[in-house]
Design goal:
- The chain has about 90 residues and is an alpha+beta fold.
- It has one domain: IHF-like DNA-binding proteins (HU Protein, Chain A, Irregular).
- Helices cover about 45% and strands about 30% of the residues.
- It contains 3 helices and 5 strands, in the order ααβββββα.
- The strands form 2 sheets. Strands 1-2-5 form a 3-stranded antiparallel sheet.
- A hairpin with a 3-residue loop joins β1 and β2.
- It is elongated and about 55 Å long.
- The two termini are about 15 Å apart.
Length: about 90
């Protein structure tokens, strides 16, 4: 599902204009991102938890030259689904 499809589905579900739904979703996603940056975690009961994960530095290859290189350590966002979400899959 794309963001546009999500906006359309929510707009139909709550009988609101797409512009209102789009603005609301943008604000919600911005608050989620702020929470993850600040608290390193965002939890939605019945859906799952977003957390900051650390990746270690690791060996790799430059795809253009095929020369060996070290991929630097990085932080990323991981998602762990709630048991209720996993049950429905």
């Amino acid at each position: 599902m794309t963001k546009a499809e999500l906006i359309e589905a929510v707009a139909k579900s709550v009988h609101q204009p797409k512009k209102t739904v789009s603005d609301t979703l943008d604000a919600a996603f911005e608050q989620i991102a702020r929470s993850i940056r600040r608290d390193k975690r965002f939890w939605v009961p019945g859906f799952g938890t977003f957390t900051v994960r650390r990746r270690r530095a690791r060996p790799g290859f430059n795809p253009r030259t095929n020369a060996p290189m070290t991929i630097p350590a990085a932080r990323t966002v991981g998602f762990r689904p709630a048991p209720q979400l996993k049950k429905g899959l």
